[in-house]
Amino acid sequence: MVYSDYTGYPFPTAPPVDPFAKIRVDDCGKTKGCFRYGKPGCNAETCDYFLSYRRIGADVEFELSADTDGWVAVGFSSDKKMGGDDVMACVHDDNGRVRIQHFYNVGQWAKEIQRNPARDEEGVFENNRVTCRFKRPVYVPREETIVDLHLSWYYLFAWGPAIQGSITRHDIDSPPVSERVVSIYKYEDIFMPSAAYQTFSSPFCLLLIVALTFYLLMGTP
């Protein structure tokens, strides 16, 4: 999601009206689904990006957290590409508050939509992290900018800086996306290593390491 390029902006920290209950990761894969992006073994307070979801009656509760002083978001998409996506973002404004906003991706740009399906919103900025929790209905009247969550969608994960409460370009060129469509009726705990931990994780890299090791052990003729 893009508004403008920006490298950093100092924001004040304001305490939430009520204490923000910490995100529980021991429930991941049991009573809620989770996505973790970052260092192996990271949690909601240490992952580069964290998202959880769980059904509560007619709603889905989402919890988001990212290592940023600006915004953290999740997009619901019919494919793995940005564009034509329903996006919920938690934005740290210049008053130190975290607000939940609704956007619709038009190509690489995020357009704010005034109709916001979020409720029971809460958020906090502390330890240089934006963290939030909100609910939105599982079913909604048919509308282009708001998807029905009872259907399965690819989840797009993004975060980045903000200028006076307006989101700017996300922190990485190719933000992570769920490997397959996500169903709110299935709870998994999925870890996605960030780029720094992906170097030797692919099958090609492992085969290359094996080949090089064999070559070095055998020597050259």
TrEMBL record:
Annotated ranges, domain DOMON: 47-162
GO biological process: regulation of glutamate receptor signaling pathway; regulation of postsynaptic membrane neurotransmitter receptor levels
Entries under SMART domains matching the protein: DoH
Keyword Membrane: yes
Keyword DNA damage set for record: no
Transmembrane segments: 200-218
PROSITE patterns from the UniProt entry: DOMON
Keyword field: Membrane, Transmembrane, Transmembrane helix
Classification via Pfam families: DOMON (PF03351)
Protein name: DOMON domain-containing protein FRRS1L
Organism expressing this protein natively: Geospiza fortis (Medium ground-finch)
Name of the encoding gene: FRRS1L
